[in-house]
């Protein structure tokens, strides 16, 4: 059975589709394809397949070379939960639904089939691994087995100091916004999710029933934590800061970003009116690349 892969670069909502439906012949009817749906949280189009050169991205570039890459996709909503709910239900956000990162599909649109539920009703075995909907227990009827996430603290720290800080500090439970993983085994949540997916694939491919597998990568969402070998791929002196990182002239303060997505971390100034030092900005970009 052929397998289709859909790659979603979350927040820019770009899809890459690999492979085609099996062609019907006189001797054999068309079979339903297996489908792998991949969501990547906060991934920007700064990849080689988008004509950029800063980030080393051979695997995604290889996938894009065999697929259809959208160059003009747009975001459904500028926060995770609402954007995911919109995508998974096919409904646009409006004043009555999908308004925050806490959005739940089974509260805002319980009478609408999710993509997983649609495939399940069409005789697919469906499963969700990693971060697909914002809440693991949202719309559980979408999946043939309970949705699975391989992490308890999605911030996914490795060093003892950062783990303690994440559990005990008063700044919204966060530790540092970036971490260079020194002398450690790559045991981050995304690695656990990939290993789980390969384990499931080895079982699913033995079944006659077609499957829809949704895989959700946490990275490169904050915090920018990665093993040192990935930090070492980049030289910080070559990293350039954005030219438009200042408040536009005459723009009212109320129009500026006040969300705690970055400011909650302990090594980032918590005052929204204060700037973030250039050296810290470079480290953040470096961590994102890693």
What does the model show?
The protein has 290 residues and is α/β, with parallel strands linked by helices. Helices cover 26% and strands 15% of the residues. The chain contains nine helices and eight strands. The protein has helices spanning 58-65, 80-89, 105-108, 115-121, 160-168, 189-204, 228-231, 260-263, 278-289; strands at 3-9, 14-18, 34-40, 67-69, 125-130, 178-181, 211-217, 224-227. It has a six-stranded mixed sheet, sandwiched between helices. The chain has a two-stranded parallel sheet with strand order 6-8. It is globular, with a radius of gyration of 20 Å. It starts with a strand and ends with a helix. Mean pLDDT is 85; it is low at 10-25.
Which structural traits does this protein have?
about 290 residues, alpha/beta, two-stranded parallel ribbon
Major sheet size, sense and barrel closure:
6 strands, mixed
pLDDT < 50 stretches: 10-25
How does the helix and strand content classify structurally?
A: alpha/beta
Number of strands: 8
Strand content of the residues, in percent? Answer: 5-15%
Question: Ends: how far apart?
Answer: 36 Å
Order of strands, main sheet, comes to 4-2-1-3-7-5
Compute the gyration radius: what is it? 20 Å
What percent of the residues sit in helical stretches (DSSP H or I)? 25-40%
């Amino acid at each position: 059975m052929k397998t289709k892969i859909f790659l979603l670069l979350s927040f820019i909502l770009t899809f890459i589709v690999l492979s085609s439906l099996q062609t019907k012949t006189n001797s054999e009817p068309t079979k339903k394809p297996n489908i792998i749906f991949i969501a990547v949280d906060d991934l920007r189009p700064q990849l080689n397949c988008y004509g950029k050169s800063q980030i080393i991205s051979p695997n995604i570039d290889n996938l894009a070379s065999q697929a259809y890459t959208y160059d003009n996709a747009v975001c459904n909503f500028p926060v995770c939960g609402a954007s995911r709910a919109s995508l998974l239900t096919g409904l646009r956000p409006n004043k009555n639904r999908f308004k925050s990162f806490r959005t739940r599909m089974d509260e805002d649109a319980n009478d609408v089939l999710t993509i997983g539920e649609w495939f399940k009703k069409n005789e697919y075995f469906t499963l969700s691994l990693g971060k697909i909907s914002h809440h693991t227990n949202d719309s559980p009827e979408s999946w043939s087995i309970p949705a699975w996430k391989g992490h308890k603290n999605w911030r996914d720290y490795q060093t003892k100091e950062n783990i303690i800080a994440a559990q005990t500090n008063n700044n919204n439970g966060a530790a540092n916004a970036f971490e260079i993983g020194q002398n450690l085994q790559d045991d981050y949540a995304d690695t656990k999710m990939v290993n789980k997916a390969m384990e499931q694939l080895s079982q699913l491919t033995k079944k006659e029933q077609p499957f829809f597998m949704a895989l959700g990568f946490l990275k490169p969402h904050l915090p920018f934590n990665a093993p040192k070998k990935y930090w070492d791929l980049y030289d910080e002196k070559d990293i350039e800061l954005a030219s438009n990182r200042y408040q536009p002239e005459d723009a009212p303060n109320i129009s500026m970003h006040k969300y705690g997505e970055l400011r909650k971390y302990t090594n980032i100034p918590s005052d929204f009116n204060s700037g973030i030092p250039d050296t810290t900005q470079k480290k953040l970009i470096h961590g994102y690349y890693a």
